[in-house]
Amino acid sequence: MLAVHCPRCGRPAPVSLASPDLMDCAACHYRGPLPVEAAQGLRAAAHVVFQTDVRRRQLSEALRRRLVTASQRHARLLVVFALASVPITLLGALIVLGVWVSPDTEGNVITGGMTVAAWLGTVGTGAAVLAVMRSRQRRLEEACAARPPAAPGEPAACHVCGAPLGAGDGAIARCGFCAADNLVAAAVLERVRARQVVILRSFEQAVSAELASFGRATSGAAAVVVATALAVPVASFVLAVAVTLVGESRRSPVDAAVTYAVVGTPLGQCIGKIMPGKGGGTAVRFGGFRRAELPEEQAIAPGAPIEAVSPGSLVGRSVTAKQGAGVVQGVFSSPLTGNSVEVRREEGTSFTSSIAGLCLSGSPPR
To answer: Which segments of the chain does DSSP mark as H helices, in order?
Structure first.
């Protein structure tokens, strides 16, 4: 709010670029000329206003609609994101349920983590876009909001020049002096009332800053929303990858509670976890990191001998895994893949693999 000190009572009184030679003080009811220096400052500020393109002070038709229909747009956007989250929520619930009932725990952390990350990415996108749109909406409203009336019954004043506003087109009123568009919605005026800043000097700088603020608030709104909608899923994916890499890098001692056996398969002698079979009895499960030629599990005939193998005995053995063939250099437990081995290929590169699904001296993967 542009203001000067009242020459009679000394309190701040609002002034306008439209009437640089006259002021009204609501405190002491003084009505008369302004101090010479203040009047000159108002004329200089008015010169700044009229040197700028009038379109910089006005709202496009699209922004007018955006201001008037803000609540309806937010409600529609909320419904859209709620509907968009239904498929990923159902899919995530099915995957998590499958992980929960699966007797094989290897790979569950990866599957469950990626599912949760995808769900959070969808929900996070909706929440972030809504938050950005609300923030941009409030910023736009406050940038073009008229100055609230000084007293009940008085007109609101233009946010650029301070001139009194007449009746506008609904929630938008155009100033008759500087042609700036002003938002006069009661809820917005009440919100900005507490944020009014009294400008007692440097009127020219204050008006220039107001024009710049209005320009920033009314430009690039759609671009920000689109950028946010694109950035949140990417950030969620990057976070999921980072969690996977960190989990993969952590190595703990082998879980001795998990037992393994070597059984004959079409690929030769392969290692699997000893677990209860689906139809009863005992079975060997090769896990989710097995080669495609291996079945998910292989039943052991009743009474058949079980050739157990300990993880530590694999060190130095030649093995074939989904990632390739090589010699086992060490064994460890990973929070992502469970008991695992580090395998060095013949050319010197290394990879890690779950113990379940390894084949001893088997043929290389196709």
So the answer is: 36-51, 61-68, 70-101, 108-144, 186-193, 203-217, 221-249
pTM (2 d.p.): 0.50
344 in the same domain as 293: yes
Number of domains in the chain: 2
Range of the domain at 336: 260-360
Residue 279 is assigned to a structural domain of this protein: yes
- The residue from 166, 193, 217 where one domain ends is 217
Q: Of the candidates 347, 300, 298, 350, which has an alpha carbon nearest to the alpha carbon of residue 321?
A: 350
Assigned domain for 233 exists: no
- pLDDT digit string (tens) for 172-207? 889 989 988 888 888 888 888 766 655 545 655 665
Between helices 36-51 and 203-217, what is the axis angle to 10°? 30
Nearest 10 degrees: Cα torsion 271, 274, 276, 277: 20
CB atoms within 10 A of CB 42: 25
Low-confidence ranges of the chain (pLDDT < 50): 200, 221, 362-366
Three-class secondary structure of residue 338 per DSSP? strand
348 in the same domain as 271: yes
Helix axes of 70-101 and 108-144: crossing angle, nearest 10 degrees: 170
Q: Which of 22, 42, 48 is nearest to 180 (CA)?
A: 48
Which residues have CB under 8 Å from 242's CB, separation 6+?
none
Domain assignment present for residue 95? The answer is no
- The rounded distance, in Å, linking the Cα atoms of 234 and 309 is 43
Q: Would you state the structure tokens that stand for residue 32, as one six-digit string? A: 């008369």
Closest C-alpha among 134, 127, 188 to residue 156: 188
Whether 102 and 108 have beta carbons less than 8 Å apart is answered as yes
Do 191 and 317 lie in a common domain?
no
C-alpha–C-alpha distance, residues 293 and 194, integer Å:
71
